[in-house]
From TrEMBL:
<feature type="domain" description="Response regulatory">
    <location>
        <begin position="5"/>
        <end position="122"/>
    </location>
</feature>
<protein>
    <submittedName>
        <fullName>Response regulator</fullName>
    </submittedName>
</protein>
<keyword id="KW-0597">Phosphoprotein</keyword>
<dbReference type="InterPro" id="IPR011006">
    <property type="entry name" value="CheY-like_superfamily"/>
</dbReference>
<dbReference type="InterPro" id="IPR050595">
    <property type="entry name" value="Bact_response_regulator"/>
</dbReference>
<dbReference type="InterPro" id="IPR001789">
    <property type="entry name" value="Sig_transdc_resp-reg_receiver"/>
</dbReference>
<dbReference type="Pfam" id="PF00072">
    <property type="entry name" value="Response_reg"/>
</dbReference>
<dbReference type="GO" id="GO:0000160">
    <property type="term" value="P:phosphorelay signal transduction system"/>
</dbReference>
<feature type="modified residue" description="4-aspartylphosphate">
    <location>
        <position position="55"/>
    </location>
</feature>
Length: 132
């Protein structure tokens, strides 16, 4: 089984660190972080992650604009995007789905459940390295 590669794009350093530590420790995945939409797009092009976790509320370029730019780029348009957002009402979820986003995970998220949530959304088999 190949190691999954996850790109976390969030302007909050704390969120980046928590997500990175938990996904690496709990799931054994490779995690790269970016602090802005522009940096996230550059990382996605260069690194080709298996999934992008994308914050909605960021300065300069918000998550929605970042997603639209990822979709417009033939190199990144096939990469699944899961939003990390505090704005997760059912109307928001419908809007995100209509735009082509795979899912949304509520912030604050449970760090120990994050990898499982991602795996379930993407249909990845789920076995934690910790339980082997």
């Amino acid at each position: 089984m190949t190691t999954k590669r996850v790109l976390v794009v969030d302007n909050e350093q704390y969120i980046q660190e928590v997500a990175k530590i938990c996904l690496e420790t709990v799931a054994g995945w490779e995690v790269l972080t970016a602090s802005s939409g522009q940096e996230g797009i550059a990382q996605a092009v260069a690194w080709q992650p298996d999934v992008i976790l994308l914050d909605v509320m960021m300065p300069d370029m918000d998550g929605i604009t970042t997603f639209e730019k990822l979709q417009a780029n033939s190199v990144t348009q096939e990469i699944p995007v899961i939003l990390l957002t505090a704005k997760i009402q059912s109307a928001d979820r419908r809007r995100y789905n209509q735009m082509g986003m795979i899912s949304a995970i509520a912030k604050p998220f449970n760090p120990l459940e994050l990898a499982k949530q991602i795996a379930e959304v993407l249909g990845w088999s789920w076995e934690t390295p910790l339980s082997q």
